Amino acid sequence: MQGKRQKSRMLRSIFLRKAPFLDFCLLPFALCLLPWFFSAPALGQTDTTFRGRRAWQLENDKLRVTVLKGGGHIAELVLKNPPNGKEVNPLWIPPWPSIEPSAYDREKHGSIYGADSEAPTLSGIMGHNVCFDYWGAPSEAEFKAGLSYHGEVSTLEWTKTGDATFRADLPQGRTSLTRTLRLIPGQPVLYFEETAENHSPFDRPFGWVQHVTFGPPFVDAKSSFFDASATRGERRLGSQTREFNWPAEGDQNFRRFSSAVRSADMAYLLLDPKRDVEFIAALNTEYRQLVAYIFQSGDFPWLNLWEQNRSRMEPPWNGETRTRGMEFGNTRISGTLRNYFRMPALWNTPTFGWLEAKAQRTARYLAVVVPIPAGFDGVRDIRLVGREIVIEGIHGEAPIRVLFDSSLF
């Protein structure tokens, strides 16, 4: 009953209250959404397997979400029954075989995944993984002591502690991370609530990054567009770093995926400090779908963009991978504690966070996946207005409006 009421309000909002602003060219698109709005609500959580990995699956009538037990990665975020009939997972599934990362053994798997600090993480990475309590590579000494890329959390076995609550305890860092996922019938919205906890008696600096990575077939040079509430940034080219303003540096427009045969790129960006709510967005005009993450500026003020276009030849990349990462987090610094103190702030913004002794910090954010009309090829802004997510196109199109529960943000 609650789902029906929500759908009724959504339809009334679109076809009545917003009717004066609807263009006749959007009418066919609006009509094709009717079956999508009226589909029967359902909510389920099950144990499953995904690409040979042990996983949990959550779904309602709009979304299917798959979470890997090893590393806790969000491997799948799929809009069910899209109006054009083309289901697609926008998140990155690597082309190499995947294993449980806790099972990685350098002697056994080194020839497949490599033998450096990235290898255990790469052996099991998919889609959206969280980096905690640092982001990037450990020092050489830390690597020898057993630390891996993006922190222990990416390779640990997560446990389910509630209906849709998952937890990882980090023995080396003496920290833990708990994540609760929520789906509401009738809404194409995935709600995240994460709590970081420091179990030691010392205040500690820490990194906390949502490593959201998009991949084929959603990512390609022809049909993919990327947007964010970003401002200024630095582009890393080999050993050089150049400042620029979003979205372009030189001949590189970061809204698009490279059309080169082989290329790679990386840039660090400050999200708009004048905003309370930030966003990243990726869309594909062939699949007519958009996925966006929306989060608080105070939790995650930084964005790292990285692009891999079949340029890395070593295992497991092998010159095959195409992917675009849009990683939002509390740190600008790749590495662990020593690196933090080399640059504690940039552009009047702290470059890492602090987790006080025996304390917790909680962040809430959400992902939304929606169909888009023909000709919609960019996001100018995403705002939260009352109980609506309002997605504005770059060409002045009628906004896409999605109901959401503001109490969960």
Q: What is the secondary structure topology, with strand pairs?
A:
Blueprint lengths: L1 H16 L9 H6 L1 H5 L5 E7 L2 E7 L3 E6 L5 E6 L26 H8 L5 H6 L3 E6 L6 H5 L14 E2 L4 E6 L4 E9 L5 E10 L5 E11 L9 E5 L1 E8 L2 E6 L2 E2 L2 E2 L9 E9 L5 E8 L4 E8 L5 E8 L12 E8 L7 H4 L4 E2 L2 E2 L2 E3 L4 E12 L7 E7 L2 E6 L6 E4 L6
Antiparallel strand pairs: 1-2, 2-3, 3-4, 5-10, 6-7, 7-8, 8-9, 9-24, 10-20, 10-23, 11-17, 12-13, 12-16, 14-15, 16-19, 17-18, 18-24, 19-20, 21-22, 25-26, 26-27
Notes on the protein architecture:
The chain is mainly beta and 409 residues long. Helices cover 12% and strands 42% of the residues. It has a single domain, classed as Distorted Sandwich (Beta-galactosidase, Chain A, domain 5). A hairpin with a 2-residue loop joins strand 25 and strand 26.
Mean pLDDT over the residues:
91
Low-confidence stretches: 1-25, 30-42
User: What summary fits the major beta sheet?
Assistant: 8 strands, antiparallel
Principal-axes geometry comes out as globular
Q: What number of structural domains do the residues give? A: 1
CATH topology: Beta-galactosidase, Chain A, domain 5
**Number of discrete helical segments:** 7
Q: Give the amount of beta strand, in percent.
A: 35-45%
Q: Give me the count of strands.
A: 27
Terminal Cα separation, in Å?
A: 23 Å
Which structural category fits the helices and strands?
A: mainly beta
Q: Given this structure, which CATH class is correct?
A: Mainly Beta
Helix percentage: 10-25%
Q: Which architecture does the CATH hierarchy give at level 2?
A: Distorted Sandwich
The Rg value, from CA coordinates, equals: 21 Å
